């Protein structure tokens, strides 16, 4: 599995909602970008408690979903942006059902691994509501499962638009990103699934703990 990178996007924290700041407004960059264990350089996350760090170093939101959302929301300008959902990687023909927790990819010269689905937050809600009057985006993402995912960085390197994202190893083959999202974020896991997720080696510690808490 090899996909062409159409854009690499980064952002800086800026005023977003009153006193709040956000770096969700990611923009394409020219030239090579460093891929470090905490994320891209340069790139920022305004709230490091819930974004960024080793388990959420690089975010991919599938470009194919932009067409889906155009069908739902209309031809809004925001969906013309590669980083509309805060994504670092703009890649087509690759979705949540195609990849698994623990899948390893060559991203340019770096080695990355899928760590978890992306849980939609209020910043997506606010961005779409404020910029194009699209309401209820978080609920829509949860309902459709069009969530995107995060990579951790196993080996640092660099990449740029025009390089490839190539899968070289499949991780937990029973646990696609789509299934993991439905189980843990949409809250539809069975007890057996929660037990599996609580011990899923390549799943981020935060979501393994979430599964343990749900088990009670």
Account of the 3D structure:
This protein has six helices and 13 strands. The chain has one domain: PK beta-barrel domain-like (M1 Pyruvate Kinase, Domain 3), CATH 2.40.33. The protein is of the alpha+beta class and 216 residues long. The mean pLDDT is 92. The strands form three sheets. Strands 1, 4, 7, 8, 9, 10, 11 and 13 form an eight-stranded antiparallel beta sheet that branches. The protein is globular, with a radius of gyration of 16 Å. Helix 5 runs antiparallel to helix 6. Strand 9 and strand 10 form a beta hairpin. InterPro entries: Benzoxazolinone_Detox_Enz, MoCF_Sase_C. This is MOSC domain-containing protein. One of its GO terms (molecular function) is pyridoxal phosphate binding.
CATH class: Mainly Beta
Report the CATH topology name. Answer: M1 Pyruvate Kinase, Domain 3
Provide the succession of SSEs: EEEEEEEHEEEHHEEEHHH
- Fourth-tier CATH superfamily name: PK beta-barrel domain-like
- Architecture in CATH? Beta Barrel
Instruction: Please tell me the total number of domains.
Output: 1
Number of helices: 6
Number of strands: 13
The main sheet comes to:
8 strands, antiparallel
- The chain-level structural class is alpha+beta
Global shape: globular
The whole-angstrom Rg is 16 Å
First CA to last CA: what distance? Answer: 39 Å
Q: Which percent bin holds the helix content?
A: 25-40%
How large a portion of the residues is in β-strands, by DSSP E? Answer: 25-35%
Q: Uncertain runs with pLDDT below 50, 5 residues or more?
A: none
Mean pLDDT: 92
């Amino acid at each position: 599995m090899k996909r062409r990178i159409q854009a690499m996007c980064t952002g800086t924290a800026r005023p977003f909602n009153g006193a709040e700041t956000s770096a969700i407004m990611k923009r394409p960059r020219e030239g090579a970008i460093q891929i470090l264990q905490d994320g891209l350089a340069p790139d920022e996350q305004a709230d490091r408690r819930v974004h960024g760090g080793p388990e959420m170093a690089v975010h991919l939101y599938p470009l194919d979903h932009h067409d889906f959302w155009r069908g739902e929301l209309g031809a809004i300008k925001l969906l013309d942006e590669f980083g509309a959902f805060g994504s670092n990687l703009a890649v087509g023909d690759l979705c949540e059902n195609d990849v698994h927790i623990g899948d390893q990819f060559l991203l340019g010269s770096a080695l990355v691994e899928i760590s978890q689905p992306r849980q939609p937050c209020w910043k997506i809600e606010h961005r779409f509501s404020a910029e194009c009057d699209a309401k209820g985006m978080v609920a829509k993402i949860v309902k459709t499962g069009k969530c995107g995912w995060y990579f951790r960085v196993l080996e640092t390197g660099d990449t740029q638009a025009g390089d490839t994202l190539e899968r070289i190893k499949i991780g937990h083959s029973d646990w696609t990103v789509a299934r993991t999202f439905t189980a843990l974020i949409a809250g539809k896991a069975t007890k057996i699934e929660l037990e599996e997720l609580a011990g899923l080696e390549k799943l981020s510690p935060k979501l393994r703990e979430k599964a343990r808490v749900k088990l009670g």
